[in-house]
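Severity: low
Component: inverse-folding endpoint
Summary: output formatting inconsistent between runs
Steps to reproduce: submit the following structure tokens with default settings.
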């Protein structure tokens, strides 16, 4: 059961990241936020074996970091 949940969370995070990357009209800051959230969600899911809290927490942290990246 735990493995199925992990695979489902990871698949959902990858699908969300892929969907966000298709938004061409986004500003650079919005795009960085979306990419950071997607990467954070995948990282959180992997590190916590698909825990919902880990996935959401990773997305929040990743989105915040992505939003604050400056070129």
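Observed output (run 2 of 3):
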């Amino acid at each position: 059961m735990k493995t199925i949940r992990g695979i489902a969370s990871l698949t959902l995070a990858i699908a969300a990241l892929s969907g966000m990357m298709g938004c061409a009209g986004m500003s650079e800051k919005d795009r960085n936020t979306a990419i950071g959230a997607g990467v954070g969600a995948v990282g959180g899911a992997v590190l916590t074996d698909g825990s919902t809290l880990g996935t959401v927490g990773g997305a929040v942290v990743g989105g915040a970091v992505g939003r604050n990246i400056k070129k």
